[in-house]
Specification:
Length: 105
Amino acid sequence: MIPEIKYADKITDISVSGYDARVVAYEESAKQGEQSKLSKVFADMNIGQSAVFVIGPEGGVSDDEINQLTAHNFISAGLGPRILRTETAPFYVLAAASYHFELSH
C-alpha cells in the first residue's frame, strides 16, 4: 500500500470516484462516542481495495460539508475520544489502516 496525502482547498475539489470506501473524520461522531465505523470500514475492505479519507481543518468539518460528503456516500466516523490536529489526523488513520491490514492478521 502506497498512501497518498493530498490537500484540497474545498470539498468540491475532492475526487470521489474510483474508491471502494469513503470516510470523513467527523468530530461530532467522536463526541457522541461513535468508535466502530472506522473499524467496520477496514473490516469490510479487502487487500487491494482503495479508500479516501477526508480530514477537515482545525475546527472541524461543517454541517454543510458533511451533507455534501454523505451525498457522495461518505461515512462519517470518529477517530477516537481525542481531538486531533489536521496535521496529525492523516497519520493516525494511516497507522490504524496499517495495523488492521498488516499487523493484526
